[in-house]
TrEMBL record:
Main location, first listed in the record: cytoplasm
GO cellular component assignments: cytoplasm; nucleus
Signal peptide: none
GO biological process: methylation
EC class name: transferase
InterPro entries: Arg_MeTrfase (IPR025799), PRMT_dom (IPR055135), SAM-dependent_MTases_sf (IPR029063)
Catalytic activity entry: L-arginyl-[protein] + 2 S-adenosyl-L-methionine = N(omega),N(omega)-dimethyl-L-arginyl-[protein] + 2 S-adenosyl-L-homocysteine + 2 H(+)
The entry's keywords: Chromatin regulator, Cytoplasm, Methyltransferase, Nucleus, S-adenosyl-L-methionine, Transcription, Transcription regulation, Transferase
Pfam family, one: PRMT_C
Molecular functions per Gene Ontology: histone H3R2 methyltransferase activity; protein-arginine omega-N asymmetric methyltransferase activity
Enzyme Commission identifier(s): 2.1.1.319
Compartments, record wording: Cytoplasm; Nucleus
Upper taxonomic lineage: Eukaryota, Viridiplantae, Streptophyta, Embryophyta, Tracheophyta
Full protein name: type I protein arginine methyltransferase
Protein's organism: Camellia sinensis (Tea plant)
Length: 194
């Protein structure tokens, strides 16, 4: 299991779970049945998880998103990697279960199981069933990213990506010493990309 930031396009398919006004007791054990349809033939390596929270203030509503396409937070995203990848064909159904149980370390033990069934030549009457699973302790993750993106001051404003380009000195050493191969520029170009 890894906590890290990744790009949204690595997700093969998405399963949304909407919960509204949960009581604390409902967070002690969370059972999520999974059901996806593979849009393409690929390998499924695991399940990615993140959350969005609405802080519904009396004056202002503010969303906090930990999604891959949002600015990185210290929660990152969670990748639960299966013990073996599951191979799927386009249109195959992927089912499973994500089961989270709270423990005394203010975190969760996580059990993940994912299954797919293939039909076709050589599959037999019941199809070919492929299952893979993993057990994880959310308190002991692998942190895959040490340099998170800066979080924007105002989440509801468009983000500006800063590109900084400048020439650098490149030196090579020959028998007579150092020789400057590229004259550095005295100014720095800064470009905002929206």
């Amino acid at each position: 299991m890894a906590l890290e930031a990744f790009k949204y396009n690595v997700c093969v398919c998405v399963h949304s779970m909407v919960t509204i006004n949960l009581m604390e007791e409902e967070l002690y054990e969370i059972d999520v049945p999974l059901k996806f349809k593979a849009p393409v033939g690929t390998r499924i390596h695991g399940l990615a998880c993140w959350f969005d929270v609405l802080f519904d203030g009396s004056i202002i509503q503010r969303w906090l998103s930990t999604a891959p396409d949002a600015p990185t937070t210290h929660w990152y995203q969670l990748r639960c990697v299966l013990s073996q990848p599951i191979y799927v064909m386009p249109g195959e159904e992927i089912t499973g279960r994500l089961h989270k149980i709270a423990h005394n370390a203010q975190s969760y033990s996580i059990n993940l199981t994912m299954t797919t069934k293939s039909w076709g030549a050589g599959a037999g009457q019941g199809g070919i069933v492929r299952t893979s699973s993993g057990k994880f302790d959310l308190k002991e993750p692998y942190y895959g990213m040490s340099q998170p993106q800066a979080y924007s001051i105002a989440q509801d404003q468009p983000t500006h990506h800063l590109t900084n380009t400048q020439d650098i000195q490149i030196q090579s050493q020959d028998e007579e010493g150092f020789e400057l191969m590229h004259q550095p520029s005295q100014n720095v170009d800064i470009e905002y990309i929206e």
